From TrEMBL:
Residues 57-464, 475-598 form the Aminoacyl-tRNA synthetase class Ia domain. Catalyzes the attachment of valine to tRNA(Val). As ValRS can inadvertently accommodate and process structurally similar amino acids such as threonine, to avoid such errors, it has a 'posttransfer' editing activity that hydrolyzes mischarged Thr-tRNA(Val) in a tRNA-dependent manner. It catalyses: tRNA(Val) + L-valine + ATP = L-valyl-tRNA(Val) + AMP + diphosphate. The gene is valS. InterPro entries: aa-tRNA-synth_I_CS, aa-tRNA-synth_Ia, Anticodon_Ia_Val, M/V/L/I-tRNA-synth_anticd-bd, Rossmann-like_a/b/a_fold, tRNA-bd_arm, tRNAsynth_Ia_anticodon-bd, Val-tRNA_synth_C_sf. PROSITE patterns: AA_TRNA_LIGASE_I. Monomer. The C-terminal coiled-coil domain is crucial for aminoacylation activity. ValRS has two distinct active sites: one for aminoacylation and one for editing. The misactivated threonine is translocated from the active site to the editing site. This is Valine--tRNA ligase. GO terms for molecular function: ligase activity.
Amino acid sequence: MTTFAGPPGLPAALAGISFQVETPASVDFTAVTELDTATQRPDLPAAWTPAEVEAELYQRWVDRRYFEADVKSDKPPFTIVLPPPNVTGSLHMGHAMNHSVMDALSRRRRMQGYEVLWLPGMDHAGIATQNAVERDLAKQGLSRQDLGREKFIERVWEWKEEYGGKILDQMKRLGDGIDWSRERFTMDEGLSRAVQTIFKKMYDDGLIYQAERIINWCPRCQTALSDIEVDHSEDEGELVSIRYGDGENSIVVATTRAETMLGDTAVAVHPDDERYQHLIGTEVELPLTGRRIPIVADAHVDPKFGTGAVKVTPAHDPNDFEIGQRHGLPNLTIMDGRATITAHGPFFGLDRLEARPAIVAALRAEGRIVAEKRPYVHSVGHCSRCNTVVEPRLSLQWWVKVENIAAAASAAVRDGRTKIHPAELNKRYFDWTDNLHDWCISRQLWWGHRIPVFYGPAGEVVCVGPDDEIPTGEGWRQDEDVLDTWFSSGLWPFSTLGWPESTEDLKKFYPTSVLSTGYDILFFWVVRMMMFGLYAMDEVQPFNDVFLHGLIRDQHGKKMSKSKGNGIDPLDWMERYGADATRFTLLRGTNPGSDMAVAEEWAAGSRNFTTKLWNATRFALANGATVERPLPARDELTAADRWIVDELDALVSTVDTNFEAFQFSRACEALAAFTRDEFCDWYLEIAKVQIADGRAEATQSVLGHVLDTLLRLLHPSIPFITETLWTSLTGGESLVIAEWPKPSGAERDLDAKAEIEGLKKLATEIRRFRSEQGLNPGQKVAGKVRGACCVGLVDQVPSVRSLTRLTEPGDEFTVSATLEVGLPKGAVKVELDLSGTIDVVAERKRLAKDLAVAQKELEGTTKKLGNEAFLAKAPADVKAKIEERKATAESEIARINERLAALPEA
């Protein structure tokens, strides 16, 4: 067995997570292989083959309508709305992790008796979908302009029907227990009505307005971008320092975008910077233009950065725009929407990237370049859809005034109506809500919700709701822009339930119970849903709990990306290891707010875990495990029976506690440890002995009880294999609708626990001793166990023998090796007869090699510790380590010599 720990440098929450990977050959179920095949259940194959089962099983769940929520049910509601994937999207590892979380939450609540609604849908993904269709058109030599707006939109709908939504089928492969009867799309009729309704309401309330501001602009896509649609990377560029003016009245500024100097309308310095006191309020000539611009004092300027003076280009930089507003500076636009220079002069008509070196050359020719630094690495924004460098641009756009609705979103978390998990991310949430700038909601696209504002021939401006009459007649036109995709997805928790109508779904399932999403979109989506939900739903929050998980990284803690070649496709994992193994791997690494690392060997380890569960259940079924008989009374159970029932009871509480705290990693680790260690490695072997000793009926009931409960607890995490095993064990209809286990509340039997802990220690020490004697794990050897009665383990001797492969000694038994194991109540002596069980020549040769290594270590450490010069200089911890190494070598030499002395002569 190999343990793969998490990679270095990951958050502390991942530090304790490990994945144990066993090769199938090391899964030791001797009992399974020794069974008469005639006793095995015919409906449970010898091996678990996910690919042959999962699709059919999932369809059975859907056909039986297990996932469909009943709005008329009197059960308490539990609602999750699926973060709507882009219609262009496919399942990636982040989706797989989040969907595993949501499905686990939903399945558990359904088993607990809640009316569960997990509502699916897709986002129209304005810019992503439009780009996809435009690329498709380009293959035919066409552009959207060739088709015109109406025909292009028709083409997008056709594309959506043909290619969109493949991620939904991939979600089914993962096992998502979603109510497909309620599937929504952000541009379906109902959601479009919600968008128009809230736009009209906010417009009438003065919360939506039009203004010129600096926005992110993509020159290729020809639209404004939200911050989340801008990817920043460290790019190589050039930092040039330019002297404005001459002599004592000159001032030097530095820039990476020399072309924007054509739009400068001021130079700014800090008001307390003594170097420039004599220049504040004066004017300086802007090179190449002949214009004179003022030197202003503004506290935004950092006097310690560069020269302490900055050029101010209000129409092409967000910070400069703010400075310009404070000082009443003109906004001079010197580029068009394609980032072509529009300022008259020798650079007119040049692309910005062509103009940059041309302007630097012209400044150099005039002696204005003071310094040039290249390469100069700095952060540059790129359009996430086409990778074009984004241009800050002054533009007339539609905005949402967020001050009041952001304050409401902040208050809902502060007063506990909505709880964020982990609580440490509250601060980041408040950083957003308390410092939010107005939100640009307009996009210069054709695909999306068109802004419902109409302009009349006489300057009229009319905003229409879904039931309002649209102005018609000569000269009337609708605004060309569409709404930011996040505007419609911000309505998702209530628009999908029928708002603005007062539907039964809305009354039953709002507010939603849990939002599960990544912390990276805390602002972009979570805050906006909070603002919209509280505004539209009379201060009722859209969610009770927000679970924020981290990002998926590779096994070395590096961010996954196509360019790095370290991305993992969850569909590949599902093909090779099954959906259950994929889910379990991801859930086992999911902690609130922490990034998680994944590697293929961990998925293989999870596959082996499911294999072990499969084999264990087959063993139990073949040995008569049953749920038909009730669990016997405690006094009718053996110590091992009472111990495993108590351990199971504790597991139920542990799993419940961690699920409620969104600690999926801890819950899965507890489930894995119990299944692998307590149940499979110990109890099953003891059960085999108990059945052989005539205690079959009680043991079979315990086996059935433990498996029934364990499979229920595992079902939310690994639904396919648990469904298959549980229905075979119980004959029940489906685990999907089975009852979730509850702790019994019974007092734990500490005596039984102590007895089994003693058994485990004794067996472990015998196994270790056998290994030291050169015996193979499966090799049987005659042995005697003495003193078990004195330490309370007499009833466990048969199990100890079975666990350690000790056979009953015969008449010719000869003691070759002796082990004494200390236990709380005394010592147990174990005697082994090794005659004829090992190759004495080979064993002496191996031990001689080990002895030489230990003697060399002892010689080296003794020499160092005898060196006075070394001891005088060496730190205390170094000396302590060498002393520890010496003691270990001495102990090893003694052990090997003892072993050599015990071996018969070759």
